Amino acid sequence: MLSATCEYALRALVLLAREAEGRPMLGRDLAREAEVPPNYLSKILNTLKRVGILEASRGTHGGYRLLKTPQEIRLIDVVEVFDSPMAKPTCVLGSGRECDDVAPCSAHAHWRDVRRVYFEFLESTTLSSIADAPSITKPEDKEVADSP
To answer: Is 77 exposed, middle or buried (0-12, 13-18, 19+ CB in 10 A)?
Structure first.
């Protein structure tokens, strides 16, 4: 449900949230660890800086770091920056209109419930809660771990 840009932003923010004592990370290190093309991530990080989620500093101990604690940053705060319409998706059947209880589409009742749960998830989930969760290993990582 999220765009690639939003997913990349969340990956980078999770990495920053995991940094001990809010230490800054260099953009190139973030790009490598988040597996995001460096030039693309640079644009994403600049956007996050512009909206007040990150700060950047230059120099020997420079890099990007969160401006707020991970507990204060909700997923909706990030999703609305990159995927505003996705944060509040409209009619599942398209047609560019907002269906509602008065003029519903045929999928309205089911989609309304999905939208509500999705939006509640974005509103109530913080960066901290996903940064603290155990990481999912990639299939190639599992194969290496399972080999003798």
So the answer is: buried
Collapsing DSSP to helix, strand or coil, 21 comes out as helix
Beta bridge partners of residue 74, listed in sequence order: 126
> Hey, is 55 helix, strand or coil?
strand
d(CA 40, CA 82): 13
Measured from the Cβ of residue 102, the count of other Cβ atoms closer than 10 Å reads 5
Query: Over the stretch 25-63, which tens digit does the pLDDT of each residue have?
Result: 999 999 999 999 999 999 999 999 999 999 999 988 889
DSSP state letter for 83: -
CB 47 within 8 A of CB 82: yes
Contact of 38 with 28, CB cutoff 8 Å: yes
State pTM to two decimals: 0.80
Angle between helices 38-50 and 27-34 (to 10 degrees): 120
Q: Please write the tens of the pLDDT for every residue from 92-129.
A: 676 666 677 777 778 888 877 888 888 899 999 999 99
